[in-house]
Structures
1.
Amino acid sequence: MNQHYPFCLPPLPYGYAGLEPFLDQSTLHFHHDCHWKTYVERLNEALKPYPQYHAMTLPQLLIQAPSMPEPLQTAVRNNGGGAYNHEIYFSLMNRPNQGGQPTGQLRQEIDRWFGSFDQWKQQMKDAGISQFGSGYAWLVWERDRLEIVKTSNQDTPDLRTQFPVMNVDVWEHAYYLCYQNRRPGYVENWFCLIDWKRVSQRFEERMENRGADFL
Ligand code: MN3
């Protein structure tokens, strides 16, 4: 997340077969090598004529986007959002966790704000399934509490007030090759791919930097 223009496509933190059997190699090839890559390339193209934005990180660009001139504003929202959202999604999955659950501070906050891990899971699942059309379901830290939010297309949560803890991509391109129209089956299996160690670490780092510009 500390990159700035020109942005590079980050490699997957696992092999293309690393998420099988829940997401197959074809899905990961298309999703990483085509979809995510295209967002990064289009973001770079859009930013090229605007050197005043070349030192900004993705979160900084997304926060600044509403004050940018058109058509840059729309390009950053869509392609900058696509680059940012996919980096979070892919970096927080790993080989099937066989029903693993969060521990430590994140687990305490999940229990505190959702009642239990199972209740959180159900609400997160419902959010992913009920997002109309393309988008994401997110677990965010909103000022002083955990919340589940949904976003459309490549919109991000409001990065001025919401720290994205994790997300699930519910665009059809994320699951169609494996699941066709069965989004609920994909979302259910996504829980088996969550890298709780990384998610917990990300959350705890954010908590230690409360109030700091850390997205
Ligand atoms: Mn996607």
2.
Amino acid sequence: MKFMATKSPKAPAPPSAPTYKPENDDGGTVLLERRPQKTKPPQMYQVVVLNDDYTPMEFVVMVIQEFFNKDRETATQIMLKIHLDGKGVCGVFSKDVAATKVDQVAEAARKHGHPLQCVSEPLQ
Ligand code: TYC
């Protein structure tokens, strides 16, 4: 027995051209939505060196040059500020880097028998 299709297959209708509706006209503008920033910048820490009566000035200058990458002139200015004001900022870093700087200064001071102190403080 043979079965015959009752309808001949039709090709799908071609997509109709978009009809212009003034209410849908975006004038070709692409709207970029402003989204709130998801990530905050990391908390930064300033590394502060403290004055004392015993550490030689020359040692402090050397420490600031070596661990805070300052030239001799800048290191000397920072040392004198610490000497006069009691403390001075040697740099601003992320938490881990600031902690490393504090450790490096403490270790150098200990090795040379100086009481030089250094702390890190969160900014803002
Ligand atoms: N006050 C020290 C002195 O007169 C010098 C000094 C400067 C020490 C800075 C510590 O962080 C310091 N020898």
